[in-house]
Write the structure tokens for this entry.
Amino acid sequence: MKPKSKILIIAGSDSSGGAGIQADIKTITSLGSYAMTAITAVTTQNTTGVKDVISIKPDIIKSQIIFTCKDIKPNAIKIGMLHSSKVILSVTKALSKIRISKIVLDPVMVAKGGTRLINKSAVNTLKKKLINKAYLITPNIPEAEVLTDMKIRSVKDTISAGKILLKIGVKNVLIKGGHKESKFIEDVLMKKNKVVIFKNRKIKTRNTHGTGCTLSSAITTFLSCGKPLKKSCELGIKYVNQAIKSNLNYGKGHGPINHLNSFNIKKIFR
């Protein structure tokens, strides 16, 4: 099977394989596209938490992006963990040289186990220098609260937060509702003068490590194949829900989801 599109992932590595660049590659590959990478950090982690975060030099990150795209131009870019202002600025400079319009930014700030992955200075740099360059940003509720300096307790609050983000230069925003204590998850997609709410029943499981990375990569993949924004978000959410339902139950903490749920392997290997 020939890949449907080419995607560059700019993100951190997760040694446990459930989130970060590993989850991104699995998602993009299982949905039929070709994944390339620019590593921003190497983490030591498992399902119980993050032990270490080792930064990659900003110049090396910039070089990875430009050198890769010079040879194989991507149809879209997915951005994940950017842990410092210097890293964010290096990515911004690299993006200005390659000019790709379909950029999905997942503003990763806190790991599933609660470890903070980005400092306050980096949050300000992200808001001032990068989010206006993305076609779509995909914060969860805690991340949207950090970006907007407001508490989100309801869908009404989510919409208010979305309006703030649109005012500061975001083109489109999908605020993920999985952190709310509710029987249903309400993900809110907003663009200028339009609000779409995706409502799905919450699946009871602790094994949701990497859902944010997976969703943003799935949406990027569908966008890269020419699908419109609303449909890309709808299909991305469906893919993640199916991956959660298959419940691998790996590890002693917040386990990973099953990225292979979309595969229908027909060949018999002998």
User: Anything to note?
Assistant: The domain at 6-260 is CATH 3.40.1190.20 (UDP-N-acetylmuramoyl-L-alanine:D-glutamate ligase). Helices lie at 20-30, 58-71, 85-98, 120-130, 141-148, 155-167, 211-224, 229-245. The chain has a mean pLDDT of 92.
